[in-house]
Each structure stands twice: as structure tokens, then as C-alpha cells.
Amino acid sequence: MGFMTFRIALRALGKNKLRSFLTMLGIIIGVGAVIAMVAIGEGAKALVRAQIAILGTNVLVILPGTVTQGGVRTGFGGVRTLVDSDAKAIMEELPVVTFAAPVVRRGEQVVAGNQNWSTLVQGVAPEFQHIRDWQVAAGRFITQADVDSAAKVALIGQTVADTLFGNEDPLDAVIRIRKIPFRVVGLLAPKGQTGTGTDQDDVVMIPYTTMQKRIMAITHVQQIVVSAVSAERTEEAREQITALLRQRHRIQPDQDDDFFIRNLSDIAEAASRTAWIMAILLGSIASVSLLVGGIGIMNIMLVSVTERTREIGIRMAVGARRKDIMLQFLVEAVVIAAIGGAFGILLGIGSSGLMNRLGGWPTLIRPDIIALAFLFSAAVGVFFGFYPAKKAADLDPIEALRYE
Fold first, then answer.
1. Do 307 and 218 fall into the same domain?
2. 174-177 vs 153-156, strand pairing mode
């Protein structure tokens, strides 16, 4: 009986092919839009996770604190109490910490031959490479000997290398920062852009002591980057670092910290939450198209009931029961929704790939979302097909036979 009902439903839909297709179109667009929008949202979430993985969820950044002058509170860096010995103490005295590296940075104009480029110059320690997992494509990273002697050596990012040297080998070349010559000892491996669009390869790294003495003329450091032994122990590391720095800086129990510790895992969680909300929002907006498609199914099925009133009367006259009539129209609605859902899946996958290829938007197709979208489209058919099917089943057989 079920197979026969299915054949009758397909035959009825085949009599009005264009109308059936236009009815399906709402479901096709709805399912396709849901899959494409969710793919964009999932792609954004994956991109955020990848960017955070680059930074490291076990990384802590220690910044100088604030100071209040004349009732005005400055931003971070208002006090200059962080020094390189703080980083050494953190790494040597706290077992929960793997590496700690002082960092000083500033935008500078870098010159090589007749080329020049404005970039970020970072003064770092050897441990910085391990904390940020920064690979060297050619040459070497900064060594402790470079730091101890405040050597005039530099590593350059891929963007800087391309701009200043083009296709030439930059190793052992000389670049000038504030007219001071630096020998290029290493080329950093490309890292690409961050989630905010910052080019990580647009950078020059030199020993932090060289940056302090020769470029900035300072004795403090602007931040200390720390890696905990694991992501699960970053909070423990934060507490131990706080206690150690308060002791080293002689901060009394009733005084505020003169430093601030930023946990990158907190930033990761906030960014992931934002991406998740965006994915939900995009999926919800696209779901409106499915609702519209369902209303279209109901509208066409009501028209179909009216057009086939006499047919319904004849079927009832030859023995068809109410549930048979209801099942027939319900199956027709579900078939429209299911076929539309199948084509919608193809449309969603295709449009997601197209957006990724042409627009450069990251997309990620999830099989569970595809299955959910298909089941939802079938559910739309059942929901919006129920009323027309019930209306057909409730027709009076005698009145139906008289209907012209």
C-alpha cells in the first residue's frame, strides 16, 4: 500500500512538472542557504581556532600595569617596572612555566640598499621562538650570545624579504635600522595573517638587548611572553607569576599589581564564542527561507486539493478510506520537500565551494548539518502538508463527486 501511495504521489506531481518544480524551489533555496551559511560560520570558527593555535592556548602575556596621575588613569604600560630579570626569574623559579621571554617592539623604517620599508621591529630572546613556535626557513634564530653582546643581527619575515630583496637571497645581507647596520642571519618561515588581518610576516626580529640599548635607549621591557607546561595549567601559572612578581616588585598586600597578565586562552574562548554566535545567526537567517518554502508547499497542496476534489470523491466511492486520502496528500508534500532538500544539499555544497574559491571566505561543510537540513526539509513537508491532507480527507464523498 505504501509503495502504491508513493507511485500515485509521483504521478500527481508529474502532471504539473513546472508547478512542482517551483514549489520545490523554495525548499531548494532554503536548504542550500542553511548549508552555505552554516558552512561560512563553521569556517570562521575553524579559522579562529587555527589562529589561536598559532598563538598558543598555553601562552600568557605579562604587560606593565597602569598608573593614576591627577585622577587620570593611564592604559597598560603607564608604569615601567617589568625588566628582563623578571623573565629569567619566572622561567627559573616556576616549574609550571616552560619558557619566558622579554619583548620590546616599535615600528621602524628599515633600509636595504636603495629599498626601504616601514615594519614592526621586535626585540626578542631565544626563548621567543619556542613560545610562539616560529620556524626559521633559512639561517638561524637569535642566540643567547647575541643577547649577551647586544649583537647587531636580525631575522626578517617573508614580507620584508620580498619587499627589500625581491628574489635575492637575504642571508648575510645588511639592513639599516635608524642608520645602524644589522646583518641578516635568518629568514622566518611564513605565518600568514592573523584573524584580525595583521600580516605576521611583516616583521624584523633583533636581540631585545640590542633594541633596548641601540634603538630605544631604555632599560625596561614592554612585555614578557610566557608559555605554561600545558593549557590546563595556565591559570596555575598565572597565580604563581602574580605571586612572584608582587614579591620581586615589593608590592604590599594592600597595593594593586603594577603589571597585568593576559591569558590567551581567554581570548580564544571569547573569539570562539563570537564565531559560534555568528554561525547560529547565519543559520537562523537562512532557516527563514525554509519556512517560506514550507508555506509554498502548503499553498500548492491546498490548490491541488481543490483541483482534485472530484478525483478524491471517486477514490472514496470505490473504497478509499480517509487515512488513505490523507496519506496520499501527505506523501506528496513530503516528496516535494525531500526532493527539494536533496537538490538544496547540492546547491549548498556547490555555493560554499564557490564562495571559498572566488570570495576567499573560509567554509567548512559538516555532514551532520547536511543530514539535519535534509531531515528538517522532510519535516517541513510533513508539517505544512498536514493541513491540506486533512482537508482532503475531510471532504464529503457525495459533495466531492458533484464538484465541477
1. no
2. unpaired
* Cα-based distances in Å from 268 to 45, 57, 160, 211, 274: 11, 7, 28, 30, 10
Q: Whole-model pTM?
A: 0.59
Residue 80 lies in a domain: no
Structural domain of 43 = 2-51+270-402
Measured CA to CA, the distance from residue 229 to residue 223 in angstroms comes to: 20
DSSP 157: -
- β-strand pairing of 180-188 with 97-112: unpaired
Same domain, 10 and 113: no
Same domain, residue pair 391 and 274: yes
pLDDT band at residue 69, thresholds of 50, 70 and 90? very low
Q: How far apart are CA 138 and CA 130, in angstroms?
A: 17
Query: Is the Cβ–Cβ distance between 44 and 275 less than 8 Å?
Result: yes
> Using one digit for the tens of pLDDT, what is the confidence trace for 81-131?
899 999 999 999 999 999 999 999 999 999 998 999 999 999 999 999 988
